[in-house]
Amino acid sequence: MTGTHRSHGPPIGEGGEVDQLCAELLGKVTGVNRGKGGSMHLSDFSVGSLFDHQVVAVQQVTSSLADQVAIVTGAGSGIGRAVAQQLGLAGASVLVCDVDGETAQETTDAITQGGGRATACRIDLADVDRLPDVVATAESAFGGVAVWLHDHEIAAVAADNDAVEGVSRVDGAPAIPLHMLTLRDMGMPLGEGFYLEELAADCADDGVYECMLVAPALRATGGVGSPVNPLAMK
Amino acid sequence: MKGPRMDDEQRLEAYRRMVRIREFEGAILEHRSEIPSVVHLSVGMEGSIVGACLAVRATTT
């Protein structure tokens, strides 16, 4: 059973307990998803209630990115680091952003040791006031931000976290600028809560990072908001 | 109407769950300022939610 971002009802309808749902909404570790799911992404597996996904497709960046600049957030570890390194290998100048300055520097070192161009940038993305600083840093370090998603025919962006970007607050209201840019302004789907561990491990194993990824929604009217079934083919 | 019918106990349980959802969402609305994330309520969807939940097996995911 899945909700459509209105995720509180189904677990209660399934007969689940409400205490852990309350804790989840309040962002507490005692919540059904340890406070990481929140209102729109809560799942209560004890009663078979899953959160929803949106439709996603991903196109790997394959062309040469020489003389281009890329900003990669969360690049100190995991998927973000892998993306930064791939962009570096493809010839882009990479601004390696992470809330942890040390890990950002480690990624930067790995890229430069491989012959690439990179600069580390410590930033907490929850602090939206600092976002212009990131762009300014990239511009001063590399002379301009040129790698924009639509310029490179990126079909969609998917991540293994709950909202792709950190949700911050401006004047008390939640601010999700990437959602606005991609979903509203560009019509580009965002994929949330993807389980990428197996794919990442497989790519690391054989060194092949290109694949075809499909993530079809239910073939029904209104199915666009249904859970997708991502499948990577290599 | 053909097909399986709900007995009184099932109807009561369905109503109980619908009321629980409505009460839960009402409480969330009341404490909206304490909740850090974006909140979407399912007020008005109680019947469809509970009807769907009761129609699937406990092992359906």
Any idea what the radius of gyration of chain A is? Answer: 19 Å
Discrete helix count of chain B: 2
Round the Cα radius of gyration of chain B to an integer and report it.
Answer: 15 Å
Give a count of the beta strands of chain A, DSSP E runs of length 2 or more. Answer: 9
Q: Strand portion of chain A, in percent?
A: 5-15%
CATH superfamily of the largest domain in chain A: NAD(P)-binding Rossmann-like Domain
Average pLDDT metric of chain B: 85
Label the overall shape of chain B.
Answer: elongated
* Helix and strand pattern of chain B: HH
Mean pLDDT of chain A: 77
Query: Could you say which structural class the secondary elements and strand pairing of chain A correspond to?
Result: alpha/beta
Of all chain pairs, the largest interface belongs to: A-B, 25 and 28 residues
What's the topology here?
The complex is a heterodimer of chains A (234) and B (61).
Chain A: H1 9-13, H2 19-25, E1 69-72, H3 78-89, E2 93-98, H4 101-113, E3 117-122, H5 131-142, E4 157-158, E5 168-170, E6 173-175, H6 177-186, E7 190-191, H7 197-206, E8 212-214, E9 231-233
Parallel strand pairs in A: 1-2, 2-3, 4-7
Antiparallel strand pairs in A: 5-6, 8-9
Helix pairs in contact in A: 3-4
Chain B: H1 8-30, H2 46-55
Helix pairs in contact in B: 1-2
Task: Give an overview in words.
The complex is a heterodimer of chains A (about 230) and B (about 60). Chain A has about 230 residues and is an alpha/beta fold. Chain A has three domains: about 1-50, no CATH class; about 55-195, NAD(P)-binding Rossmann-like Domain (Rossmann fold, 3-Layer(aba) Sandwich); about 195-234, no CATH class. Chain A has seven helices and nine strands, in the order H-H-E-H-E-H-E-H-E-E-E-H-E-H-E-E. Chain A has helices at about 10-15, 20-25, 80-90, 100-115, 130-140, 175-185, 195-205; strands at about 70, 95-100, 115-120, 155-160, 170, 175, 190, 210-215, 230-234. Chain A has a three-stranded parallel β-sheet with strand order 1-2-3, with helices on both faces. A two-stranded parallel ribbon of chain A has the order 4-7. A two-stranded antiparallel ribbon of chain A has the order 5-6. In chain A, helix 3 packs parallel to helix 4. The longest helix of chain A has 13 residues, at about 100-115. Chain A is globular, with a radius of gyration of 19 Å. Residues about 55-65 and about 145 of chain A have low confidence and may be disordered. Chain B has about 60 residues and is mostly helical. Chain B contains two helices and no strands. In chain B, helix 1 packs across helix 2 (about 45-55). The two termini of chain B are about 30 Å apart. In chain B, about 25% of the residues are buried. At the A-B interface, helix 1 of A face helix 1 and helix 2 of B.
